[in-house]
Here is the input.
Amino acid sequence: MSSLSLAVRDSNTMLRRNLLHARRYPSLTLNLLLTPIMLLLLFVYIFGDVMSAGIGGADRADYIAYIVPGILMLTIGGTTVGTAVSISMDMTEGIIARFRTMAIHRGSVLIGHVIGSVLQSIMSVVFVGAVALAIGFRSTDAMILEWILAIGLLTLVALALTWIAVGMGLVSPNAEAASNNAMPLILLPLLSSAFIPVDTMPGWFQPFAEYQPFTPAIETLRGLLLGTEIGNNGWLVIGWCLVLAVLGYLWSSSVFNRDQK
Amino acid sequence: MPSPVMPTSKRANGKDGTAAVSAVGLRKSYGERLVLDGIDLRIPAGSVFALLGPNGAGKTTAVKILSTLITADAGDLRVGGHDLAADPQAVRAAIGVTGQFSAVDGLITGEENMLLMADLHHLSRAEGRRSAAELLERFDLTDAAKKPASTYSGGMKRRLDLAMTLVGGPRIIFLDEPTTGLDPRSRHNMWGIIRGLVSDGVTVFLTTQYLEEADELADRIAVLNDGRIAAEGSAEELKRLIPGGHIRLRFTDPATYQSAAFALREVTRDDEALALQIPSGGSQRELRSILDWLDSADIEADELTVHTPDLDDVFFALTGPANIPNQTKEDVR
Here is the structure.
Protein backbone atom coordinates (compact mmCIF):
# COMPACT_ATOMS: atom_id res chain seq x y z
CA MET A 1 0.00 0.00 0.00
CA SER A 2 1.39 3.41 -0.88
CA SER A 3 2.14 5.68 2.02
CA LEU A 4 -0.54 8.16 0.96
CA SER A 5 -3.31 5.59 0.79
CA LEU A 6 -2.05 4.14 4.08
CA ALA A 7 -2.24 7.62 5.60
CA VAL A 8 -5.76 8.17 4.28
CA ARG A 9 -7.01 4.79 5.37
CA ASP A 10 -5.52 4.87 8.87
CA SER A 11 -6.53 8.49 9.45
CA ASN A 12 -10.05 7.56 8.43
CA THR A 13 -10.03 4.70 10.94
CA MET A 14 -8.79 7.03 13.67
CA LEU A 15 -11.40 9.63 12.70
CA ARG A 16 -14.13 7.02 13.07
CA ARG A 17 -12.75 6.13 16.50
CA ASN A 18 -12.89 9.77 17.61
CA LEU A 19 -16.38 10.32 16.22
CA LEU A 20 -17.48 7.19 18.06
CA HIS A 21 -16.08 8.66 21.28
CA ALA A 22 -17.87 11.96 20.64
CA ARG A 23 -21.13 10.17 19.91
CA ARG A 24 -20.90 7.91 22.97
CA TYR A 25 -19.86 10.68 25.33
CA PRO A 26 -21.45 13.87 24.03
CA SER A 27 -21.29 15.63 27.41
CA LEU A 28 -17.89 17.23 26.78
CA THR A 29 -19.04 18.64 23.43
CA LEU A 30 -22.30 19.89 24.89
CA ASN A 31 -20.54 21.50 27.85
CA LEU A 32 -18.33 23.40 25.47
CA LEU A 33 -21.37 24.70 23.60
CA LEU A 34 -22.74 26.21 26.79
CA THR A 35 -20.07 28.91 27.08
CA PRO A 36 -20.68 30.61 23.71
CA ILE A 37 -24.45 30.33 24.04
CA MET A 38 -24.42 31.77 27.56
CA LEU A 39 -22.15 34.61 26.48
CA LEU A 40 -24.39 35.32 23.50
CA LEU A 41 -27.52 35.49 25.65
CA LEU A 42 -25.75 37.40 28.44
CA PHE A 43 -24.40 40.08 26.16
CA VAL A 44 -27.58 40.45 24.16
CA TYR A 45 -30.24 40.31 26.86
CA ILE A 46 -28.41 41.58 29.95
CA PHE A 47 -25.77 43.97 28.63
CA GLY A 48 -27.38 44.50 25.23
CA ASP A 49 -28.88 47.98 25.72
CA VAL A 50 -25.66 49.54 27.00
CA MET A 51 -23.51 47.65 24.52
CA SER A 52 -25.59 48.66 21.50
CA ALA A 53 -25.30 52.29 22.58
CA GLY A 54 -21.54 51.73 22.91
CA ILE A 55 -21.13 50.60 19.33
CA GLY A 56 -23.31 53.44 18.11
CA GLY A 57 -26.17 51.15 17.17
CA ALA A 58 -29.84 51.95 17.56
CA ASP A 59 -31.05 48.90 19.43
CA ARG A 60 -30.37 45.42 20.60
CA ALA A 61 -30.77 43.93 17.09
CA ASP A 62 -27.75 45.94 15.95
CA TYR A 63 -25.74 44.48 18.80
CA ILE A 64 -26.84 40.91 17.98
CA ALA A 65 -25.55 41.48 14.47
CA TYR A 66 -22.30 42.87 15.87
CA ILE A 67 -21.43 40.07 18.27
CA VAL A 68 -22.55 36.94 16.39
CA PRO A 69 -19.40 36.66 14.23
CA GLY A 70 -17.27 36.91 17.39
CA ILE A 71 -19.44 34.37 19.20
CA LEU A 72 -19.01 31.95 16.29
CA MET A 73 -15.21 32.31 16.46
CA LEU A 74 -15.37 31.89 20.22
CA THR A 75 -17.35 28.70 19.65
CA ILE A 76 -14.44 27.34 17.63
CA GLY A 77 -11.99 28.41 20.36
CA GLY A 78 -14.11 26.61 22.96
CA THR A 79 -14.37 23.43 20.89
CA THR A 80 -10.60 23.33 20.49
CA VAL A 81 -10.17 23.56 24.28
CA GLY A 82 -12.16 20.34 24.28
CA THR A 83 -9.74 18.95 21.71
CA ALA A 84 -6.77 19.70 23.96
CA VAL A 85 -8.52 17.97 26.86
CA SER A 86 -9.50 14.89 24.88
CA ILE A 87 -6.02 14.60 23.34
CA SER A 88 -4.36 14.70 26.75
CA MET A 89 -6.83 12.13 28.08
CA ASP A 90 -6.31 9.94 25.05
CA MET A 91 -2.53 10.03 25.43
CA THR A 92 -2.79 8.58 28.92
CA GLU A 93 -4.73 5.63 27.49
CA GLY A 94 -2.73 2.48 26.92
CA ILE A 95 -4.19 2.14 23.45
CA ILE A 96 -1.99 4.97 22.16
CA ALA A 97 1.07 2.92 23.10
CA ARG A 98 -0.48 0.04 21.18
CA PHE A 99 -0.94 2.25 18.10
CA ARG A 100 2.73 3.16 18.30
CA THR A 101 3.75 -0.47 18.08
CA MET A 102 1.59 -1.11 15.02
CA ALA A 103 2.56 -0.74 11.38
CA ILE A 104 0.16 2.13 10.80
CA HIS A 105 0.66 5.61 9.42
CA ARG A 106 2.41 7.44 12.24
CA GLY A 107 0.49 10.68 11.95
CA SER A 108 -2.93 9.09 11.62
CA VAL A 109 -3.62 9.24 15.37
CA LEU A 110 -3.29 13.03 15.36
CA ILE A 111 -4.86 13.55 11.95
CA GLY A 112 -7.91 11.57 13.08
CA HIS A 113 -8.22 13.83 16.11
CA VAL A 114 -7.79 16.98 14.05
CA ILE A 115 -10.37 16.10 11.40
CA GLY A 116 -12.79 14.94 14.08
CA SER A 117 -12.31 18.15 16.01
CA VAL A 118 -12.74 20.37 12.94
CA LEU A 119 -16.00 18.57 12.12
CA GLN A 120 -17.10 19.07 15.71
CA SER A 121 -16.21 22.76 15.51
CA ILE A 122 -18.31 23.17 12.39
CA MET A 123 -21.23 21.38 13.99
CA SER A 124 -20.92 23.56 17.08
CA VAL A 125 -20.84 26.67 14.90
CA VAL A 126 -24.00 25.51 13.14
CA PHE A 127 -25.66 24.90 16.49
CA VAL A 128 -24.67 28.25 17.98
CA GLY A 129 -25.57 29.90 14.66
CA ALA A 130 -29.03 28.41 14.93
CA VAL A 131 -29.44 29.91 18.41
CA ALA A 132 -28.30 33.26 16.98
CA LEU A 133 -30.90 33.01 14.20
CA ALA A 134 -33.54 32.14 16.77
CA ILE A 135 -32.89 35.31 18.76
CA GLY A 136 -33.00 37.48 15.69
CA PHE A 137 -29.62 37.43 13.93
CA ARG A 138 -29.93 38.00 10.19
CA SER A 139 -27.15 38.05 7.69
CA THR A 140 -27.90 41.23 5.77
CA ASP A 141 -25.37 40.93 3.05
CA ALA A 142 -24.29 37.38 2.35
CA MET A 143 -24.99 35.74 -0.99
CA ILE A 144 -23.92 32.22 -1.97
CA LEU A 145 -20.28 33.22 -2.50
CA GLU A 146 -20.07 34.97 0.86
CA TRP A 147 -21.61 31.99 2.62
CA ILE A 148 -19.12 29.64 0.99
CA LEU A 149 -16.25 31.93 1.93
CA ALA A 150 -17.60 32.25 5.48
CA ILE A 151 -17.77 28.49 5.90
CA GLY A 152 -14.29 28.16 4.39
CA LEU A 153 -13.01 30.79 6.81
CA LEU A 154 -14.56 29.07 9.83
CA THR A 155 -13.07 25.75 8.72
CA LEU A 156 -9.64 27.26 8.21
CA VAL A 157 -9.70 28.91 11.65
CA ALA A 158 -10.91 25.66 13.20
CA LEU A 159 -8.09 23.74 11.51
CA ALA A 160 -5.42 26.18 12.67
CA LEU A 161 -6.65 26.39 16.27
CA THR A 162 -7.13 22.62 16.44
CA TRP A 163 -3.50 21.91 15.52
CA ILE A 164 -2.39 24.35 18.23
CA ALA A 165 -4.79 22.72 20.69
CA VAL A 166 -3.44 19.27 19.78
CA GLY A 167 0.07 20.45 20.67
CA MET A 168 -1.22 21.91 23.93
CA GLY A 169 -2.98 18.66 24.73
CA LEU A 170 0.11 16.60 23.95
CA VAL A 171 2.37 18.55 26.30
CA SER A 172 -0.21 18.43 29.11
CA PRO A 173 0.18 15.59 31.60
CA ASN A 174 -3.54 15.41 32.37
CA ALA A 175 -6.95 16.81 31.48
CA GLU A 176 -6.83 19.66 34.02
CA ALA A 177 -3.47 20.85 32.74
CA ALA A 178 -4.71 20.63 29.16
CA SER A 179 -7.76 22.68 30.01
CA ASN A 180 -5.55 25.33 31.63
CA ASN A 181 -2.97 25.33 28.84
CA ALA A 182 -5.66 25.76 26.21
CA MET A 183 -7.28 28.65 28.08
CA PRO A 184 -5.89 31.30 25.66
CA LEU A 185 -8.01 29.77 22.91
CA ILE A 186 -11.15 30.84 24.73
CA LEU A 187 -9.73 33.98 26.39
CA LEU A 188 -8.31 35.57 23.25
CA PRO A 189 -11.74 36.07 21.66
CA LEU A 190 -12.71 38.13 24.73
CA LEU A 191 -9.71 40.40 24.04
CA SER A 192 -10.65 40.91 20.39
CA SER A 193 -13.25 42.89 18.51
CA ALA A 194 -15.83 40.22 19.35
CA PHE A 195 -17.81 42.26 21.86
CA ILE A 196 -16.65 45.84 21.37
CA PRO A 197 -14.80 47.60 18.56
CA VAL A 198 -11.03 47.75 19.01
CA ASP A 199 -11.00 51.57 18.76
CA THR A 200 -13.06 51.82 21.96
CA MET A 201 -10.34 49.99 23.90
CA PRO A 202 -7.49 51.72 25.80
CA GLY A 203 -4.84 52.95 23.39
CA TRP A 204 -2.01 50.82 24.76
CA PHE A 205 -4.10 47.71 24.29
CA GLN A 206 -5.33 48.40 20.77
CA PRO A 207 -2.30 47.05 18.84
CA PHE A 208 -2.59 43.71 20.63
CA ALA A 209 -6.34 43.47 20.14
CA GLU A 210 -6.11 44.50 16.53
CA TYR A 211 -3.49 42.04 15.36
CA GLN A 212 -4.09 38.97 17.50
CA PRO A 213 -5.56 36.20 15.33
CA PHE A 214 -9.15 36.47 16.48
CA THR A 215 -9.75 40.08 15.49
CA PRO A 216 -8.92 39.68 11.77
CA ALA A 217 -10.89 36.41 11.78
CA ILE A 218 -13.92 38.09 13.33
CA GLU A 219 -13.66 41.20 11.14
CA THR A 220 -13.46 39.06 8.01
CA LEU A 221 -16.47 36.99 9.02
CA ARG A 222 -18.36 40.17 9.93
CA GLY A 223 -17.56 41.60 6.52
CA LEU A 224 -18.74 38.45 4.74
CA LEU A 225 -21.99 38.17 6.69
CA LEU A 226 -22.84 41.83 7.24
CA GLY A 227 -21.03 43.66 4.47
CA THR A 228 -18.71 45.69 6.71
CA GLU A 229 -15.24 46.71 5.58
CA ILE A 230 -12.82 43.73 5.50
CA GLY A 231 -9.70 45.60 4.42
CA ASN A 232 -6.50 43.70 4.97
CA ASN A 233 -8.10 41.50 7.63
CA GLY A 234 -8.79 38.80 5.04
CA TRP A 235 -5.10 38.39 4.28
CA LEU A 236 -4.18 38.74 7.92
CA VAL A 237 -6.47 35.91 8.96
CA ILE A 238 -5.30 33.62 6.16
CA GLY A 239 -1.70 34.34 7.14
CA TRP A 240 -2.39 33.71 10.82
CA CYS A 241 -4.21 30.47 10.09
CA LEU A 242 -1.48 29.10 7.85
CA VAL A 243 1.23 30.01 10.34
CA LEU A 244 -0.68 28.55 13.30
CA ALA A 245 -1.65 25.41 11.40
CA VAL A 246 1.90 24.72 10.25
CA LEU A 247 3.45 25.52 13.64
CA GLY A 248 0.81 23.46 15.43
CA TYR A 249 1.36 20.56 13.06
CA LEU A 250 5.16 20.61 13.43
CA TRP A 251 4.96 21.05 17.19
CA SER A 252 2.39 18.29 17.66
CA SER A 253 4.22 15.86 15.40
CA SER A 254 7.53 16.39 17.13
CA VAL A 255 6.00 15.96 20.59
CA PHE A 256 4.05 12.88 19.48
CA ASN A 257 7.06 11.24 17.84
CA ARG A 258 9.29 11.86 20.82
CA ASP A 259 10.36 8.79 22.81
CA GLN A 260 7.84 7.93 25.46
CA LYS A 261 8.98 7.30 28.99
CA MET B 1 28.51 4.35 20.25
CA PRO B 2 28.96 0.75 19.17
CA SER B 3 29.33 -1.62 22.05
CA PRO B 4 31.92 -4.37 21.97
CA VAL B 5 30.59 -7.43 20.24
CA MET B 6 30.37 -10.32 22.62
CA PRO B 7 32.00 -13.54 21.51
CA THR B 8 29.40 -15.49 23.44
CA SER B 9 27.83 -18.82 22.69
CA LYS B 10 25.72 -17.53 19.81
CA ARG B 11 27.56 -19.69 17.32
CA ALA B 12 27.51 -22.63 19.64
CA ASN B 13 23.80 -23.26 19.56
CA GLY B 14 23.91 -23.30 15.80
CA LYS B 15 20.57 -21.59 15.08
CA ASP B 16 21.89 -18.38 13.65
CA GLY B 17 19.34 -17.92 10.93
CA THR B 18 16.23 -18.45 13.01
CA ALA B 19 16.39 -15.94 15.84
CA ALA B 20 13.04 -14.18 16.21
CA VAL B 21 14.55 -11.60 18.51
CA SER B 22 18.19 -10.82 19.00
CA ALA B 23 19.98 -8.10 20.86
CA VAL B 24 23.67 -7.51 21.23
CA GLY B 25 24.92 -4.86 23.59
CA LEU B 26 21.54 -3.26 24.24
CA ARG B 27 21.98 -0.11 26.27
CA LYS B 28 19.57 2.50 27.51
CA SER B 29 19.80 5.21 30.08
CA TYR B 30 17.43 7.93 31.16
CA GLY B 31 19.68 10.86 31.89
CA GLU B 32 22.12 9.71 34.54
CA ARG B 33 20.24 6.54 35.32
CA LEU B 34 21.53 3.51 33.44
CA VAL B 35 18.59 1.18 32.90
CA LEU B 36 20.01 -1.44 30.54
CA ASP B 37 23.74 -1.95 30.68
CA GLY B 38 24.60 -3.84 27.53
CA ILE B 39 22.34 -6.87 27.50
CA ASP B 40 22.51 -9.70 24.96
CA LEU B 41 19.48 -11.79 24.07
CA ARG B 42 18.80 -14.40 21.47
CA ILE B 43 15.36 -15.93 21.15
CA PRO B 44 14.88 -18.75 18.64
CA ALA B 45 11.69 -18.57 16.57
CA GLY B 46 8.82 -20.51 18.05
CA SER B 47 10.11 -20.51 21.61
CA VAL B 48 9.00 -18.83 24.80
CA PHE B 49 11.48 -16.56 26.45
CA ALA B 50 10.98 -15.09 29.90
CA LEU B 51 12.76 -12.02 31.14
CA LEU B 52 12.65 -12.34 34.87
CA GLY B 53 13.58 -9.67 37.33
CA PRO B 54 12.55 -7.63 40.32
CA ASN B 55 10.64 -4.36 39.94
CA GLY B 56 12.77 -1.69 38.34
CA ALA B 57 15.24 -4.15 36.83
CA GLY B 58 14.61 -2.80 33.33
CA LYS B 59 12.24 -5.47 32.01
CA THR B 60 9.65 -3.04 30.72
CA THR B 61 12.32 -0.83 29.18
CA ALA B 62 13.68 -3.84 27.28
CA VAL B 63 10.20 -4.65 25.96
CA LYS B 64 9.51 -1.03 25.03
CA ILE B 65 12.74 -0.89 23.06
CA LEU B 66 12.25 -4.21 21.27
CA SER B 67 8.65 -3.31 20.41
CA THR B 68 9.75 0.05 18.88
CA LEU B 69 8.12 2.24 21.54
CA ILE B 70 11.39 3.83 22.57
CA THR B 71 14.80 3.89 20.97
CA ALA B 72 17.91 2.28 22.41
CA ASP B 73 21.07 4.25 23.06
CA ALA B 74 23.20 1.47 21.61
CA GLY B 75 23.00 -2.12 20.50
CA ASP B 76 22.53 -4.26 17.45
CA LEU B 77 18.86 -5.18 17.62
CA ARG B 78 16.87 -7.37 15.26
CA VAL B 79 13.27 -8.46 15.56
CA GLY B 80 11.63 -10.74 13.02
CA GLY B 81 14.73 -10.42 10.85
CA HIS B 82 14.45 -6.63 10.65
CA ASP B 83 16.84 -4.10 12.07
CA LEU B 84 15.06 -2.09 14.74
CA ALA B 85 16.88 1.14 14.04
CA ALA B 86 16.72 0.94 10.25
CA ASP B 87 13.23 -0.38 9.68
CA PRO B 88 11.00 -0.05 12.73
CA GLN B 89 7.88 -0.18 10.57
CA ALA B 90 8.78 -3.68 9.31
CA VAL B 91 9.34 -4.76 12.90
CA ARG B 92 5.93 -3.37 13.84
CA ALA B 93 4.33 -5.39 11.07
CA ALA B 94 5.80 -8.58 12.54
CA ILE B 95 5.01 -8.12 16.21
CA GLY B 96 2.11 -7.90 18.62
CA VAL B 97 2.49 -6.18 21.96
CA THR B 98 0.52 -6.46 25.16
CA GLY B 99 1.95 -3.94 27.55
CA GLN B 100 1.82 -3.89 31.29
CA PHE B 101 -1.02 -1.43 31.39
CA SER B 102 -4.15 -2.28 29.58
CA ALA B 103 -3.98 -1.07 25.97
CA VAL B 104 -7.67 -1.16 25.24
CA ASP B 105 -9.89 1.78 24.40
CA GLY B 106 -12.16 1.94 27.44
CA LEU B 107 -14.68 4.28 25.81
CA ILE B 108 -15.76 1.83 23.14
CA THR B 109 -16.99 -1.76 23.33
CA GLY B 110 -14.86 -4.87 23.23
CA GLU B 111 -16.11 -5.64 19.75
CA GLU B 112 -15.40 -2.12 18.53
CA ASN B 113 -11.88 -2.44 19.93
CA MET B 114 -11.41 -5.62 17.91
CA LEU B 115 -12.81 -4.06 14.73
CA LEU B 116 -10.54 -1.05 15.24
CA MET B 117 -7.57 -3.41 15.24
CA ALA B 118 -8.88 -5.19 12.15
CA ASP B 119 -9.19 -1.84 10.34
CA LEU B 120 -5.66 -0.85 11.34
CA HIS B 121 -4.40 -4.17 10.00
CA HIS B 122 -6.23 -3.35 6.77
CA LEU B 123 -8.36 -6.45 6.84
CA SER B 124 -11.44 -6.39 4.67
CA ARG B 125 -14.70 -5.72 6.47
CA ALA B 126 -15.81 -9.35 6.31
CA GLU B 127 -12.41 -10.67 7.30
CA GLY B 128 -12.23 -8.18 10.16
CA ARG B 129 -15.63 -9.19 11.50
CA ARG B 130 -14.77 -12.87 11.26
CA SER B 131 -11.43 -12.49 12.98
CA ALA B 132 -12.94 -10.28 15.71
CA ALA B 133 -15.75 -12.75 16.38
CA GLU B 134 -13.34 -15.70 16.43
CA LEU B 135 -10.95 -14.10 18.88
CA LEU B 136 -13.73 -12.82 21.14
CA GLU B 137 -15.07 -16.37 21.21
CA ARG B 138 -11.66 -17.86 21.90
CA PHE B 139 -11.04 -15.47 24.77
CA ASP B 140 -14.48 -16.01 26.23
CA LEU B 141 -15.57 -12.42 25.64
CA THR B 142 -18.52 -12.95 23.30
CA ASP B 143 -21.08 -12.16 26.02
CA ALA B 144 -19.32 -8.93 26.92
CA ALA B 145 -18.58 -7.92 23.32
CA LYS B 146 -21.21 -5.16 23.22
CA LYS B 147 -20.25 -3.60 26.55
CA PRO B 148 -17.77 -0.71 26.92
CA ALA B 149 -14.31 -2.06 27.71
CA SER B 150 -14.08 0.25 30.73
CA THR B 151 -16.70 -1.92 32.46
CA TYR B 152 -14.59 -5.09 32.11
CA SER B 153 -12.89 -6.78 35.06
CA GLY B 154 -9.09 -6.89 35.21
CA GLY B 155 -8.95 -10.39 33.78
CA MET B 156 -11.37 -9.54 30.97
CA LYS B 157 -9.36 -6.46 30.06
CA ARG B 158 -6.20 -8.52 29.84
CA ARG B 159 -7.95 -11.06 27.65
CA LEU B 160 -9.33 -8.34 25.39
CA ASP B 161 -5.89 -6.76 25.31
CA LEU B 162 -4.31 -10.01 24.18
CA ALA B 163 -7.11 -10.70 21.72
CA MET B 164 -6.45 -7.29 20.16
CA THR B 165 -2.76 -8.11 19.95
CA LEU B 166 -3.55 -11.27 18.01
CA VAL B 167 -5.59 -9.57 15.26
CA GLY B 168 -3.55 -9.81 12.10
CA GLY B 169 -1.70 -12.91 13.32
CA PRO B 170 1.64 -11.56 14.57
CA ARG B 171 4.44 -14.16 14.67
CA ILE B 172 6.26 -12.55 17.57
CA ILE B 173 4.41 -11.47 20.67
CA PHE B 174 5.67 -9.35 23.54
CA LEU B 175 3.84 -9.75 26.82
CA ASP B 176 4.90 -7.39 29.56
CA GLU B 177 3.87 -8.90 32.88
CA PRO B 178 0.79 -10.53 31.40
CA THR B 179 -0.55 -11.83 34.71
CA THR B 180 0.37 -9.08 37.16
CA GLY B 181 -2.70 -8.16 39.15
CA LEU B 182 -4.74 -11.15 38.03
CA ASP B 183 -6.40 -13.55 40.45
CA PRO B 184 -5.14 -17.16 40.45
CA ARG B 185 -7.89 -18.43 38.16
CA SER B 186 -7.34 -15.69 35.58
CA ARG B 187 -3.62 -16.30 35.81
CA HIS B 188 -4.03 -19.97 35.00
CA ASN B 189 -6.37 -19.06 32.13
CA MET B 190 -3.74 -16.69 30.80
CA TRP B 191 -1.11 -19.40 31.00
CA GLY B 192 -3.35 -21.69 29.01
CA ILE B 193 -3.80 -18.99 26.39
CA ILE B 194 -0.06 -18.41 26.15
CA ARG B 195 0.59 -22.15 25.77
CA GLY B 196 -1.99 -22.16 22.99
CA LEU B 197 -0.10 -19.44 21.15
CA VAL B 198 3.12 -21.35 21.42
CA SER B 199 1.55 -24.46 19.98
CA ASP B 200 0.68 -22.33 16.94
CA GLY B 201 4.38 -21.62 16.49
CA VAL B 202 4.31 -18.04 17.74
CA THR B 203 7.43 -16.70 19.45
CA VAL B 204 6.62 -15.29 22.86
CA PHE B 205 8.76 -12.81 24.75
CA LEU B 206 7.37 -12.32 28.20
CA THR B 207 8.46 -10.48 31.28
CA THR B 208 7.44 -11.52 34.70
CA GLN B 209 8.34 -11.13 38.31
CA TYR B 210 6.83 -14.51 39.12
CA LEU B 211 9.31 -17.34 39.09
CA GLU B 212 6.55 -19.86 38.92
CA GLU B 213 5.31 -18.27 35.72
CA ALA B 214 8.71 -18.39 34.05
CA ASP B 215 9.13 -21.99 35.20
CA GLU B 216 5.70 -22.92 33.82
CA LEU B 217 5.91 -21.25 30.45
CA ALA B 218 9.40 -20.46 29.31
CA ASP B 219 11.88 -22.50 27.30
CA ARG B 220 14.57 -20.08 28.30
CA ILE B 221 14.78 -17.63 31.13
CA ALA B 222 17.05 -14.65 31.57
CA VAL B 223 17.34 -13.08 34.98
CA LEU B 224 17.65 -9.33 34.62
CA ASN B 225 19.06 -7.49 37.57
CA ASP B 226 20.25 -3.94 37.77
CA GLY B 227 20.30 -3.56 33.99
CA ARG B 228 22.33 -6.69 33.32
CA ILE B 229 21.56 -10.29 32.52
CA ALA B 230 22.62 -12.01 35.72
CA ALA B 231 22.03 -15.51 34.33
CA GLU B 232 20.39 -17.16 31.37
CA GLY B 233 19.29 -20.68 30.58
CA SER B 234 16.45 -23.14 30.94
CA ALA B 235 14.77 -23.35 34.33
CA GLU B 236 16.76 -26.51 35.04
CA GLU B 237 20.05 -24.94 34.04
CA LEU B 238 19.41 -21.96 36.23
CA LYS B 239 18.55 -24.13 39.18
CA ARG B 240 21.82 -25.98 38.75
CA LEU B 241 23.70 -22.68 38.86
CA ILE B 242 22.85 -22.17 42.46
CA PRO B 243 23.95 -24.49 45.25
CA GLY B 244 20.71 -23.68 47.00
CA GLY B 245 19.98 -27.23 48.14
CA HIS B 246 20.13 -28.14 51.78
CA ILE B 247 19.08 -30.67 54.32
CA ARG B 248 16.91 -29.36 57.08
CA LEU B 249 16.88 -30.89 60.51
CA ARG B 250 14.08 -29.95 62.84
CA PHE B 251 14.02 -30.57 66.57
CA THR B 252 11.27 -30.38 69.10
CA ASP B 253 13.43 -30.22 72.21
CA PRO B 254 15.41 -26.97 72.60
CA ALA B 255 18.17 -28.71 74.54
CA THR B 256 18.71 -31.29 71.79
CA TYR B 257 18.63 -28.48 69.24
CA GLN B 258 21.28 -26.51 71.13
CA SER B 259 23.62 -29.44 71.48
CA ALA B 260 23.17 -30.41 67.83
CA ALA B 261 23.86 -26.83 66.75
CA PHE B 262 26.98 -26.83 68.91
CA ALA B 263 28.17 -30.17 67.54
CA LEU B 264 27.55 -29.38 63.89
CA ARG B 265 28.78 -25.77 63.94
CA GLU B 266 29.03 -25.27 60.14
CA VAL B 267 25.30 -24.97 59.71
CA THR B 268 22.70 -22.28 59.34
CA ARG B 269 20.64 -21.94 62.49
CA ASP B 270 16.99 -21.11 62.71
CA ASP B 271 16.51 -20.71 66.46
CA GLU B 272 12.89 -19.77 66.12
CA ALA B 273 11.93 -23.04 64.40
CA LEU B 274 14.59 -25.11 66.17
CA ALA B 275 15.89 -26.08 62.75
CA LEU B 276 19.34 -26.46 61.25
CA GLN B 277 20.24 -26.31 57.57
CA ILE B 278 23.17 -28.25 56.18
CA PRO B 279 24.17 -27.28 52.63
CA SER B 280 23.82 -30.20 50.21
CA GLY B 281 23.25 -30.80 46.53
CA GLY B 282 20.86 -33.59 47.45
CA SER B 283 22.70 -36.54 45.90
CA GLN B 284 22.51 -39.95 47.50
CA ARG B 285 26.22 -39.99 48.32
CA GLU B 286 26.09 -36.59 50.02
CA LEU B 287 23.01 -37.57 51.92
CA ARG B 288 24.66 -40.76 53.18
CA SER B 289 27.75 -38.93 54.38
CA ILE B 290 25.65 -36.41 56.24
CA LEU B 291 23.64 -39.16 57.88
CA ASP B 292 26.87 -40.90 58.90
CA TRP B 293 28.13 -37.67 60.33
CA LEU B 294 24.93 -37.14 62.29
CA ASP B 295 25.13 -40.71 63.62
CA SER B 296 28.71 -40.33 64.70
CA ALA B 297 27.83 -37.08 66.48
CA ASP B 298 24.86 -38.86 68.05
CA ILE B 299 22.33 -36.38 66.79
CA GLU B 300 18.81 -37.48 66.18
CA ALA B 301 16.49 -34.93 64.57
CA ASP B 302 12.73 -35.21 64.82
CA GLU B 303 12.32 -34.38 61.17
CA LEU B 304 14.70 -34.44 58.21
CA THR B 305 13.81 -32.91 54.85
CA VAL B 306 15.82 -32.60 51.65
CA HIS B 307 15.34 -29.27 49.94
CA THR B 308 16.36 -29.00 46.27
CA PRO B 309 17.00 -25.57 44.75
CA ASP B 310 14.10 -23.91 42.98
CA LEU B 311 13.93 -20.75 40.92
CA ASP B 312 13.27 -18.77 44.08
CA ASP B 313 16.74 -19.65 45.31
CA VAL B 314 18.20 -18.71 41.97
CA PHE B 315 16.33 -15.46 41.91
CA PHE B 316 17.27 -14.42 45.41
CA ALA B 317 20.86 -15.48 44.94
CA LEU B 318 21.19 -13.49 41.71
CA THR B 319 19.16 -10.44 42.55
CA GLY B 320 19.46 -10.20 46.31
CA PRO B 321 21.31 -7.43 48.12
CA ALA B 322 24.15 -9.89 48.73
CA ASN B 323 24.98 -9.58 45.04
CA ILE B 324 26.86 -6.34 45.59
CA PRO B 325 29.48 -6.57 42.78
CA ASN B 326 27.05 -4.94 40.32
CA GLN B 327 27.01 -1.84 42.46
CA THR B 328 30.73 -1.38 42.24
CA LYS B 329 30.58 -1.75 38.49
CA GLU B 330 28.02 1.00 38.39
CA ASP B 331 30.30 3.28 40.32
CA VAL B 332 33.14 2.70 37.89
CA ARG B 333 30.95 3.84 35.02
